[in-house]
Amino acid sequence: MKIDGTRRQDRAIELVLAYYAAFNRGDRAAMLALLADDVVHDLNQGARESGKDAFATFMQRMDASYREQLRDVVVLASQDGSRAAAEYVVHGEYLRDDTGLPPARGQKYVLPGGAFFDIRDDRIARVSNYYNLQDWIAQVGD
Fold it and tell me: What is the CATH number of the domain that holds 128?
């Protein structure tokens, strides 16, 4: 049983690492392929959205305003592979104004972040993102 548990744990870690590798490549189709159809997305300090279509729309908005790479990614997973967590450092550039946030002027930022995942049937069923919004605002604000 431990071997099976280890395999599930390893698979969960591989899945999340593949998700972030696709993110860093800008391959949104590959990211979406790793998600469950009914994926739940908890936006940092924001609303909960559901479904791949909502996720794709969110990513389009993000891609219009930000250019980001995630570095120093570390992923941990439960032994049964049903949950995972990731910590990383966002290296980004603020390209275009985002609603309710400071004006964009190409400001660069470096920001620690993290996410929590539910995994079901070898797909990501939930992504809950976290970063310190006040830290980001201090880096890009006037």
Answer: 3.10.450.50
> Model pTM?
0.93
**Domain region containing 19:** 2-140
3-state helix, strand, coil in the chain (%, to 5): 35, 40, 25
pLDDT by residue for the chain (142 residues), tens only, comes to: 455 768 999 999 999 999 999 999 999 999 999 999 999 999 887 789 999 999 999 999 999 999 999 999 999 999 999 999 999 999 999 999 998 899 999 999 999 999 999 999 999 999 999 999 999 999 998 6
Task: Count up the domains in the chain and report the number.
Answer: 1
Strands 48-50 and 35-42: antiparallel
